[in-house]
Amino acid sequence: MQLVAWENESTAICDRIRSSRGALKIVLKTKDDPFFLADWVDHHRKIVGDANLIIFDNGSADSKVLSVYEELGPDLLIASFGGFHNNLHNPKNFEELYASLSASSDFHCFLDTDEFLAFYDGERFTSDASILRHLNDNEGGAFIPSTWLYNAPSYRDRMLCGTDLGTLRNGLTWGKPLIRSAAAPFSGEVNHNCQIAKGKKAPAPLFGFFLLHMATLSPAQRIRANLNKLIARGFMQRGDSVEKVLERDISRATENEKLYVTEIKRMLSLREDRGPETAPLGTGSMRIDQSGKVEFASPAEERVFAEFAASFDALCAQTLPS
User: How many domains, the chain?
Assistant: First the structure.
């Protein structure tokens, strides 16, 4: 499938983005990551619709990815872009793109294929158009921070909330911002909450937005994603084996490179098959059933989650100082 190339068709791409207005526009940044792709699109089109869903592909060659794109058809805007993948998260590198998003939405965000947006209203998680009403444009702040909730290894419906605030605090730090369009322009990278806050932009301490981060549902998917990141950073060559990568001396590697290599080692110890549904919830975890209701492993996890909600304003001030 021939994708519309940003380098040649940026004006046409931005015109199409501007052609429809939405409360929230979601941009997927992806490359050669077929595992979640179709599910990711189905999940987020229920929230914002096809007109407000955009895919920016960093040069995928995977046949399964291209097949999904073919099946999605012309209603979804799918654009390709070259260069280092994280360049997409610095507005100065894609000024026209960020301007078109700001002009056509109240909020916009950039997600990866293993991140699924949801809203928790105190009783249940929802992932449909109803969550858009929680995007209060009068709340103030340059962005609404979403909180990462990592899945429990091998489970899609079990998430890790911890037995103290440390897990959720980390999820708040590294979650993705729902960027308020009226707060533009932004400086520096805006990929994570902590990055956009460094640009002297204060968050709107609105509790409820989460990203269900399926980082350990498929170890093979996560290993492949990390290998692609290491290739993009020049740490390894395409075609290098995992064994060769793990033999490398990482003492002089960047912190991100060390993180990816360490995570690959951890992923190799996990199983690929799904965990048994009848297994008890592990310490520090919670289960989200099909209706969105939450079951906690014990009262300790329930207390932590309630404390996180009650102290969200203060936690934003502590972890995301502008």
Answer: 3
